Amino acid sequence: MARKLFTATVAISLLILAATWLQTTNAIKFDLPGQDADDAQPVCVSHYVDEETQVVIKVKAGPGSHQKVSLEVEDSSVHQNQLFRKDSLTEEFQRIAFLNKEASDVVACFTNTLAKNYKPDARYSRTIDVDFEIGAEAIDYVKMADQEKLKPMEVELRKLEDQVGEILRNMEHLKAREERMRNTNESTNERVKWFSTLTMCVLVVLGLWQIFYLKRFFRKKRLID
């Protein structure tokens, strides 16, 4: 009985450690200087996201007079899908939720433009807070608890279940990538082997042809018997 209890405790501890490892911080905070509207350059933050993965981005722009911060979110796929756009961020946290369809970097670009007749100065900047929540982190468990009437312990167990499930999916993804890379490597090795064999055959044939040609040439010139 004691051994079973110890095993169960260890298993739960490992699950908690795994979930803690998964919940790495993705929050970034930086100052965004004000720029002229005509030549304003965006400052971008990106995060890699797998396909069919839920994403939540929480953003907030700090106080700053005569400045307007715009946000554009898109992915780095071939299509460069625009996922969100807003021309004026407020001092309140804004929650942006979407489903990423293709495996790519999700890029959030911020631009701080000054009002008319205002020039760039060290006084003009706004502090940007941005937080990426990916996969299980993006689930609103408070809302889920209200809808499903879950107890606090049940909510924590659901969190652990989702996070461990995401770890398993990531491991399967890594396994599939490793298998694709191994197949590519084996295919490349096979092609190199046949190319090397063909090269050797061509060299041997050319060598024999040169020997017979030179021998015939020298005989025709009566230099050898």
Number of helices: 3
How much strand?
Answer: 25-35%
Q: Strand order, main sheet: write it out.
A: 1-8-3-6
**Weakly predicted, low-confidence segments:** 2-25
Q: Estimate the helix proportion, in percent.
A: 40-55%
How confident is the prediction overall: mean pLDDT? 82
DSSP strand count: 8
Give me the secondary-structure category.
alpha+beta
Q: Report the end-to-end length measured between terminal Cα atoms.
A: 99 Å
Q: What is Rg? A: 31 Å
Report on the structure:
- There is one protein chain.
- The protein is an alpha+beta fold and 225 residues long.
- Strand 4 (67-75) and strand 5 (82-86) form a beta hairpin.
- It has 3 helices and 8 strands, in the order H-E-E-E-E-E-E-E-E-H-H.
- Helix content is 44%, strand content 29%.
- The model is unreliable at 2-25 (pLDDT under 50).
- It is elongated, with a radius of gyration of 31 Å.
Keywords:
alpha+beta; 225 residues; disordered N terminus; 4-stranded antiparallel beta sheet; 8 strands; 44% helix
Please outline the helices and strands:
Layout: H1 2-22, E1 27-33, E2 43-49, E3 53-61, E4 67-75, E5 82-86, E6 94-100, E7 104-114, E8 125-134, H2 141-148, H3 152-220
Antiparallel strand pairs: 1-8, 2-7, 3-6, 3-8, 4-5, 4-7
Helix pairs in contact: 1-3
